[in-house]
Amino acid sequence: MQEEINYEKAVGELEEIVRKMENDQLDMDSLTQQLRRAQTLIRFCKDKLTKTDEEIKKILEEE
Question: Which residue numbers in the chain have pLDDT < 50?
Fold first, then answer.
């Protein structure tokens, strides 16, 4: 991801994409674009959660 984004913003954007999909607010071109964006956001969130989990485990092991 090029722009600065944090986990909360990524989740918020994903929720907005889902809302638009559920309300049929996306035409076919927008749908494809939004699905690609969602895929990027999901990957970002998954990586962030994995890294956070690893950091927490490391901290707990140090105690």
Answer: 1-2
User: CA-to-CA distance for 28 and 7, rounded, in angstroms?
Assistant: 28
The structure's pTM equals 0.81
pLDDT, averaged across the chain: 92
CA-CA distance, 35 to 58, in Å (whole number)?
Answer: 34
Look at residues 54, 45, 53 and name the one whose alpha carbon lies nearest to residue 13. 45
List phi, psi (to 5°) of 31.
Answer: -60, -45
Letter string b/e over residues 9-25, b meaning 16 or more CB atoms within 10 A of that residue's CB: ebeebbeebeeeeeeee
